[in-house]
Specification:
Layout lengths: L9 H11 L6 H15 L11 H18 L3 E6 L2 E6 L4 H8 L9 H13 L2 E2 H8 L4 H9 L3 E6 L7 E5 L1 H7 L10 H29 L2 H7 L1 H5 L2 H4 L3 H6 L2 H11 L3 H5 L3 H16 L2 H13 L3
């Protein structure tokens, strides 16, 4: 058995560094690693002292191809200005189970809107964010700061010198962006919106026949009340109990309930009062959503 140690190739060293790195590594940083190893250890490490960034990029491409060909569940991606080795997204379910991560946490709609404003308009103050969204964003900004998706990058020259916020490297890593230049532009966003609108419109004809089939049911339901309204006159033939009550009370059940069958068979005054109470309650119900709907816009941020 030979004791000769085989010199590793450049792509093997690069792959090992990417595997051990916790953050994306740039080509310039890898060049510093090779030069530092050559100065400190010499010998075999000195052979890689003159490695350039172009050599690093070629080695990263070789590692990427080897991982893809081997089917190892790993890949090398370009993110946050550097390179990172990560697991294949198709293996994410089993990794979350092994790491006991549970279900992934997702940003809410208001949080995504606030984050988008910061990403496209940074540096931006909290007041400028609120001017765009129209609601207070104190709670959402604190949440994004806790998630390390945004950070305070300085203070504005406006009165009071408010904080200016911008995105972080974690933001780029989270969304898989190499740099802020990879953010979609206005035209790309319009194309995406048009594509989603067209997809939604394509599904509309399929539901149109169902709507048409259910349309005739409306007139039938509307035609049903006339026989019920004709029901009260036979009961009105007995004027003795009806004349004892005041005229407004006798007319109220007929005009409001339109003569339902159970009420016309037994029309005592207490039941008529109960029906008026139920109608008053149901008349007030449409106002409830309006009062409950107001806090939803500003409830979250407050």
């Amino acid at each position: 058995m030979s004791d000769v140690e085989v010199q590793p190739e450049l792509r093997e060293i690069v792959g090992a560094v990417l595997f051990a790195a916790k953050q994306p590594v740039t080509a310039a940083r890898l060049c510093e690693v090779f030069r530092g190893a050559a100065d400190q250890f010499g010998g075999a490490a000195a052979a890689f002292a003159e490695v350039t960034e172009a050599d690093i990029e070629a080695a990263v491409a070789a590692v990427r191809e080897a991982l893809a060909a081997g089917g190892l569940g790993l890949r090398v991606v370009s993110v946050a200005g550097g390179y990172r080795m990560e697991n294949d997204t198709r293996c994410g379910l089993w990794l979350r189970q092994y790491l006991e991560k549970g279900r992934p946490t997702r940003l809410s709609g208001p949080a995504l809107e606030t984050l988008a404003i910061v990403a496209y308009r940074q540096p931006v103050t909290r007041a400028q964010i609120e001017a765009v969204r129209g609601v207070a964003v104190d709670a959402i900004v604190r949440t994004l700061l806790d998630l390390q998706l945004i950070r305070a990058v300085g203070r504005s020259d406006l009165p009071g010198r408010p904080w200016l916020f911008g995105t972080t490297q974690r933001f780029l890593e989270h969304f898989g962006l190499h740099s802020l230049d990879d953010l979609p532009g206005v035209e790309e966003l319009r194309e995406t919106r048009a594509a989603s609108t067209a997809a939604a419109a394509a599904g509309a004809p399929a539901s149109a026949p169902d709507a048409g089939a259910s349309a005739p049911a409306g007139p039938d339901a509307d035609e049903a009340p006339p026989p019920d309204t004709e029901g009260p006159p036979p009961d009105a033939e007995d004027p003795e109990p009806d004349t004892e009550d005041p005229a407004p009370d006798a007319e109220t059940p007929v005009s409001e309930t339109q003569g339902p069958a159970p009420d016309t068979e037994s029309p005592p005054p207490p039941e008529a009062d109960d029906r008026r109470i139920e109608l008053a309650d149901t008349a007030d119900e449409p106002e409830a959503p309006a009062t409950r709907g107001k806090p939803t816009d500003g409830g979250g941020p407050a």
